[in-house]
Q: What sequence folds into this?
């Protein structure tokens, strides 16, 4: 299993990523080519830091990536459907939670790093206080963004031959993957930030695990489309149904069954490897607070 992310290196990564993403937010107001070029350099800089942070994980992962995902999935125990964050979530999404996900140790490592040290960005809000509009700023933790940046860096280090693809885009109508160059690389449309914007008629699962890493990530080559949910981000039936339709073969029998079997739900940290949460009961007070 890959070793833990070094705290000092990870802190440097998050600091650099924070500066890059904050710059990206400011980029909406940037008018000059020089400003945008500077932001692009910041993104490249923090991606290089990501590579260094995950070097140990990459070395450990390299011993397994030549194995088919379906073979690796046999040893996965699935997620913890005995744990519920909210209402009947563990019953409604039981089959998705318990789905076998190859490379769960590596995925868990990345997601836990993103949970513990996410990129944080300021967001301006305007509130009415005592009848007057007052500008204020809150800090938003971008946990999913941090995880996706880490997975993308793994893919780049492996010359876009990683079996783990971060937020790849698929045409919602045809289910065709939007391939980059090489065709094992997800096509990106953002000039500064890789995952935004994306085409209007597209779907992008948080993480796709391909069966054969040397081949494009078309749905036929997808072993699992993983929806990742961090705390306070709830699974939604409509979203899961969209991914099932995306993964359904166009012809043949049992199309919906096949589509369902390719969709997984991974809640962080509940479904990550190495966490003893099976016998824990949800904190009722915390659960009620999250409903607000």
A:
């Amino acid at each position: 299993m890959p070793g833990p992310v070094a705290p000092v290196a990870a802190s440097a990564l998050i600091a650099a990523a924070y500066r890059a993403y904050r710059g990206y937010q400011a980029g909406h107001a940037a008018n000059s080519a020089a400003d945008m070029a500077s932001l692009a350099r910041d993104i490249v800089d923090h991606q290089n830091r990501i590579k260094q942070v995950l070097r140990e994980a990459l070395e450990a992962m390299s011993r397994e990536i030549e194995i088919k995902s379906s073979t690796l999935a046999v040893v996965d125990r699935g997620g913890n459907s005995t744990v519920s964050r909210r209402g009947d979530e563990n019953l409604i999404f039981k089959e998705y939670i318990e789905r076998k996900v190859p490379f769960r140790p590596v995925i868990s490592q990345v997601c836990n790093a993103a949970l513990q040290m996410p990129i944080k960005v300021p967001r301006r809000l305007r509130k009415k206080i005592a009848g007057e509009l007052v500008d204020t700023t809150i800090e938003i933790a971008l946990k999913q963004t941090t995880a996706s940046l880490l997975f993308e860096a793994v893919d780049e280090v492996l010359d876009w031959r990683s079996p783990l693809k971060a937020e790849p885009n698929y045409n919602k109508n045809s289910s065709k993957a939007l391939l980059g160059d090489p065709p094992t690389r997800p096509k990106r449309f953002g000039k500064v930030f890789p995952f935004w914007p994306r085409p209007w008629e597209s779907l992008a699962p948080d993480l796709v695990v391909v069966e054969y890493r040397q081949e494009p990530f078309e749905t036929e080559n997808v072993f699992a489309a993983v929806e990742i949910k961090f705390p306070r981000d709830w699974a939604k039936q409509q979203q899961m149904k969209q991914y099932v339709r995306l993964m359904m073969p166009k012809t043949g029998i049992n199309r919906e069954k096949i589509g369902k079997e390719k969709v997984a739900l991974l809640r962080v940290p509940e479904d990550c490897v190495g966490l003893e949460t099976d016998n824990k009961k949800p904190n009722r007070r915390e659960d009620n607070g999250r409903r607000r």
Q: What stands out?
A: The chain has one domain: 69-290. The CA atoms of residues 4 and 109 lie 7 Å apart. The radius of gyration is 20 Å. The first strand starts at residue 119 and ends at 129.
